[in-house]
C-alpha cells in the first residue's frame, strides 16, 4: 500500500488528550467499522483501489486475486453502503461498472496505512516472536509425549 497523506483533522485530534468518557455511539461505530474493514477482502479491495484508482469489476477481481465474484460483489456493496467506494454504471452495451474510492475511503486507507507501516517496521520482531513461540510449543509437545 502506498503511503497516504496524513489527514490533518485526525493528526490534530491525535495531539489532544484522551477523553475521560467515551461516547457509546462512537464506540459502537468504531467496533462496527473495525469488524467490517478488518476482514481481508475489504482491506485488499481498499488497497487495490488505492493503488490503481478506478477499476472495473473484473479488473478489481484480478487485482485482489482469489476472490469469488459473489464475495467481491458483497464486499463492494457493503463498502458502497458505508460510503467507502463509489459505483458507476456505464450505460453501454455490454454495460460495465467501475469502482473508485471516495474521499472517505481514501481517508480510511490513510488510517490503515499506519498499520502497514507498523507491520513493515516490526516484521523481523514478529517473525522472531512467532519462531520462539513455535519452538516453545514444540518443546512442550515433546515433553508431554514423553510422559
TrEMBL record:
Q: Where is the HTH hxlR-type domain?
A: 23-127
Q: Which SUPFAM superfamilies match?
A: Winged helix' DNA-binding domain
Judging by the UniProt lineage, the source's domain of life is: Bacteria
InterPro entries in the cross-refs: ArsR-like_HTH, HTH_HxlR, WH-like_DNA-bd_sf, WH_DNA-bd_sf
Q: Carries keyword Cell membrane?
A: no
Q: Which UniProt keywords apply?
A: DNA-binding, Transcription, Transcription regulation
One Pfam family this chain carries?
Answer: HxlR
The record's section on PANTHER family has: TRANSCRIPTIONAL REGULATOR, MARR FAMILY, TRANSCRIPTIONAL REGULATORY PROTEIN
Q: What is this protein called?
A: Helix-turn-helix transcriptional regulator
Which organism encodes this protein?
Azospirillum endophyticum
Amino acid at each position: 500500500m502506498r503511503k497516504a497523506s496524513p489527514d490533518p483533522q485526525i493528526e490534530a485530534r491525535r495531539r489532544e488528550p484522551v477523553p475521560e468518557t467515551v461516547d457509546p455511539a462512537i464506540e459502537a461505530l468504531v467496533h462496527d467499522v473495525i469488524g467490517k474493514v478488518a476482514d481481508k477482502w475489504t482491506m485488499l479491495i481498499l488497497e487495490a483501489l488505492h493503488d490503481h484508482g478506478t477499476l472495473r469489476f473484473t479488473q478489481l477481481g484480478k487485482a485482489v486475486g482469489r476472490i469469488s465474484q459473489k464475495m467481491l460483489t458483497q464486499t463492494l456493496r457493503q463498502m458502497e453502503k458505508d460510503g467507502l467506494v463509489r459505483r458507476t454504471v456505464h450505460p453501454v452495451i455490454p454495460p460495465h461498472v467501475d469502482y473508485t474510492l471516495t474521499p472517505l475511503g481514501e481517508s480510511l486507507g490513510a488510517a490503515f496505512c499506519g498499520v502497514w507501516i507498523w507491520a513493515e517496521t516490526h516484521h523481523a520482531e514478529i517473525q522472531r516472536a512467532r519462531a520462539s513461540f513455535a519452538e516453545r510449543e514444540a518443546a512442550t509437545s515433546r515433553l508431554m509425549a514423553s510422559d
